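quick one before i forget lol
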Amino acid sequence: MHACRAELLAIEEAAVRGWPALQSAVIDGWVWRHTSGGSVRANTVASLVFTGSDVEAAIVEVERRYRAAGAPPRFTISEVSVPADLDARLAARAYLRGDDHVTMAKRLEPCSMPADALEVGAEPTPEWMEVYLSGLSLDRRAVAPSILSGLPARRMYFASRRLGKIVASGLSIADGGLASVQCMATLPAYQRQGCAQGVLAAIECWAAAQGCRLLYLQTGADNMAAQALYRRCGFFLAGRYHTRVLAR
């Protein structure tokens, strides 16, 4: 089972919409994104569409905007980035390759919502926020609430509760026939106890009920524990991406 190029492009486009930057601009089809903090998606150029005639001039404009914002120029490079030689162009301009990530997906079928002490709501509760933020770096914690406040309307927050408290979090955003798995976190004392798997099952059933046909998520290529969990839940590798950053 695999994702075709059109599906992977649709996933990447949905991922851009599903985690909006606080500042953005369109540069010849590319989406320039800037948000303080460590979020990869919200601080890189989404290079999924290019409508210009001069790639080098567009890169120069990207660099100008990031420098004006006091941030290093950074691109997300996926298997559907355009133009196809963008990664090589950036490498030639001394952009350093960043961490590798994977995109995973699962085809959806109707299912019944699990009853394992799960909570579902259209807005994050303070307790949900506490669990989610606990797993982030300090720079990401500072900006995450602002990003969450600007999410698309077709969203749902999920939580697993044990012994009266929320111990695992998750978020899904429905976008056409796609739905995301985001903001997955489990308190250390409750890991490997099925909490995250219960949240995933709830997200899957909610997404199927929304009419979505494909569930997707993105995680670090070196996060083998997370990938193993997702494979056990029926996800397959759909694509890969990395960043390029101009550090000088």
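fyi The first strand starts at residue 23 and ends at 27.
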